[in-house]
Each structure stands twice: as structure tokens, then as C-alpha cells.
Design brief:
By secondary structure, the chain is an all-alpha fold. It is about 65% helix and about 0% strand. Helix 8 (about 180-200) runs parallel beside helix 10 (about 220-230) and helix 10 packs antiparallel against helix 11 (about 235-255).
Length: about 325
């Protein structure tokens, strides 16, 4: 055999041996079945396996610990965020407020529209802009402000133990509801709110407060006395309440207009200032400052009673 052929045969044997060893190494390390076609005239197989080994090994390396991100700085008008956890009592108060005033809390809010159904039928509400204007008025000079005042006064009377004042507040709140359907809406939700809060978070002081209110307890008064019984501060309570009411109004309009999810959230975002300002004003107002100027919304709740096609109870 010529010398050149002997060298070629030797090189081919060495390539085959290296190929077998590398295939065995890859299979034992990553337990992946690799099928390799060895071409004796070229070194394609050897190059392919050599390239695959680092890739397979990299994929099986344990994840490296991530670097801690730098603390985010607060934006304009936003408070700085610290890393200290909430005190236990504040965490419990936040948890209960989020539960009581979330859409999943079963007070039946989804079945009421507060007259919005008639406003859509009449053409007063037809798009996001008209909905925003309608709800802005309801918050600032309508039922939103009045309910905020009743919640505030009920919370303060319950917190101070003034049973006589609490009884008068509950009676006045029930008497000032502008229509039969709105009366049904707020009284049914108020009763459901108290019953469910009692069943899940029973507290002895709540029984006395409920007795002071008499037979009918409207929704804002119910939220006021329950939060006071659990010693939840007024300010977060009234903000959460008005936010929940606004969300329910938007949810009803989203099904009636209809509105998309993005448009609904845009309306909610634009009403943030109205909710904040109404909560602040209602928390400082007295019962003598009660008043509403949303005549069209009051008429809507009355005319809804005789509306031919209805999806909602108010």
C-alpha cells in the first residue's frame, strides 16, 4: 500500500475514533439522542458535533442570579416608594377594603345601572366622551357626592358611638333617594354588604350599629358603619367606595353603549381626579351641604321604570 493511502487511512480512523468519543460524551452529559452521519471524505460531522457541544452545555447551566434593579424613583406628583412592609393593622384594613369593594364581592352591583340604561336609550350617552361627562357630573354634583357625605357622616357617628346621630343619618339617606328603582338599588346592596361582611368578618360592635340604623340601610351608610366597626380609617374607605361605584357605572355602560375594554379604562383614568376631589370634598362636608344638580340623571332613574327593554334593574 503506498504511503499516501496509509496516511489517509490513518487519518480516517482517527476521525472515526474522535467522532465516536464525542457522540458518547454528548449523550452521557445531556441525555439527548444525537444521530450523526459520518462522512469519511470530509470533516463536516466533526465540525457539527464540536459546535453542538457548547450549545447543549450552555442550555443546561443553572440560571445565574439576576442583578438587583436600582430602586425606581418616584414620578412627578407621586410619593416615593419605600421597602418597608405595611404594619399588620394597615395591611388588614387594605385587604378588607379591597375585598368588600371589589366587583367580586356579591352585593349584586352588576345588575344595576343607576339610570345609565335609559341615558343610553335616549342618546345622552353614546361614546366614551359623553359617558365621561355624565359620570363626572354624577360624581361631583350628583349621587356620588351625596353618597360620599352619607358614608362620611355614618362612619364618624359609628366611630364616636353617637347612636342617635347614626339613626338620623340612616333615615335621611333612605329618604333622599330620588326614585323607587334607585331606592331598591342602594337598599338591596346595603343589606347584602352588611350580611356578607357579617358572615365573613363577624364583629360584635357591628350588631349594635345595625340596630341603630333601623330597618333600611342604604349602601353608603352600610359601608360607613362596617368600616368604622373594623376601625378602618375614613379617607381610604371613601376613596375605595367612590372608585367602586364609578367602576360599576362604567361596567354597565360598557355593556350598553357598548364600549371596548380599552375605552372603558381610559374613561376610568380620566375620572381619577373627579373621584379624588369628590372624596376630599365629601369628607369635609356636613349634612347641611347635601344637594344634587344632576336632574337629567334623576329623570333617567325614574323613566327607567317604564322603559320597554331593560337589561338592568335600575
Amino acid at each position: 500500500m503506498p504511503l499516501t493511502r496509509m496516511r489517509q487511512a490513518k487519518h480516517t480512523a482517527m476521525r472515526l475514533m474522535i467522532s465516536r468519543r464525542m457522540i458518547i460524551t454528548v449523550m452521557s452529559t445531556v441525555t439527548i439522542m444525537v444521530t450523526v452521519t459520518i462522512i469519511s471524505t470530509t470533516s463536516i460531522a466533526i465540525m457539527t458535533i464540536t459546535t453542538a457541544i457548547p450549545m447543549l452545555m450552555t442550555a443546561n447551566e443553572p440560571p445565574r442570579p439576576r442583578r438587583r434593579a436600582a430602586p425606581a424613583t418616584a414620578g412627578p406628583g407621586m410619593p416615593s416608594v419605600g421597602s418597608n412592609p405595611l404594619p399588620e393593622n394597615e395591611a388588614a384594613a387594605l385587604y378588607r377594603l379591597m375585598t368588600w369593594l371589589s366587583p367580586s364581592f356579591p352585593v349584586g352591583a352588576f345588575s344595576y345601572s343607576s339610570g345609565i340604561e335609559w341615558a343610553v336609550e335616549a342618546g345622552d350617552i353614546s361614546d366614551p366622551s359623553s359617558l365621561e361627562a355624565w359620570l363626572d357630573s354624577m360624581l361631583r354634583v350628583g349621587s356620588g357626592f351625596c353618597d360620599g357625605v352619607f358614608l362620611t357622616q355614618a362612619h364618624r357617628a359609628a366611630s364616636s358611638g353617637d347612636d342617635a346621630a347614626l339613626s338620623e343619618i340612616a333615615e335621611l339617606a333612605g329618604a333622599l333617594v330620588p326614585s323607587r328603582e334607585r331606592g331598591l338599588e342602594t337598599s338591596m346592596q346595603g343589606r347584602a354588604f352588611i350580611d356578607i361582611a357579617r358572615a365573613a368578618w363577624n364583629i360584635a360592635s357591628l350588631d349594635r350599629l345595625v340596630e341603630c340604623c333601623g330597618g333600611i340601610i342604604v349602601y353608603p351608610v352600610a359601608v360607613g358603619i362596617v368600616s368604622a366597626a373594623h376601625r378602618i380609617p375614613l379617607q381610604p374607605t371613601i376613596h375605595a367606595f367612590l372608585h367602586a361605584v364609578t367602576c360599576n357605572w362604567i361596567s354597565a355602560a360598557a355593556r350598553l353603549v357598548p364600549l371596548g375594554q380599552t375605552d372603558s379604562q381610559r374613561v376610568l383614568a380620566r375620572l381619577e381626579q373627579a373621584v379624588t376631589e369628590t372624596a376630599s370634598r365629601a369628607s369635609k362636608a356636613s349634612l347641611e351641604e347635601l344637594g344634587s344638580a344632576t336632574f337629567r340623571a334623576d329623570l333617567a332613574s325614574m323613566r327607567h321604570e317604564a322603559q320597554y327593554t331593560r337589561l338592568f334593574r335600575s
